[in-house]
Known about the structure:
The chain has 100 residues and is mainly beta. The protein folds into 2 domains: 2-50, no CATH class; 63-100, no CATH class. The chain is 4% helix and 32% strand. The protein is built from 1 helix and 8 strands. It has one helix at residues 76-79, and strands at residues 2-3, 7-9, 20-23, 28-29, 34-36, 47-50, 83-89, 92-98. The protein has a two-stranded parallel sheet with strand order 1-4. The longest helix has 4 residues, at 76-79. It is rod-shaped. The protein starts with a strand and ends with a strand.
Amino acid sequence: MTLNNSQLRANAYEGNGGNINITTDHFIKSSNSILNASSKSGIDGKIYINASDTDFIGSLKILPTTFVDISNLLRDNCATDKSTFFLGKRTGLSKVFLEQ
């Protein structure tokens, strides 16, 4: 479940606030999203999140804005047609498509 610029509320003016129960494999909430279960004059509700991953901040990375220039790695016969070039890393493969 992803909340991106979203609001999930169970609020009350009189009486108790409602409860919010979320059960999912992964839960991501952007900083501008709101989860709220409050009450103006009663008891606030509770928010329960049952997810294996709720904090992705340490594992998210910003992608680079530039691409790897692999034109000097292509052989002449590959450079004339549409080709697929695999750039390998220890963590996996990145597939780069070239059109000429």
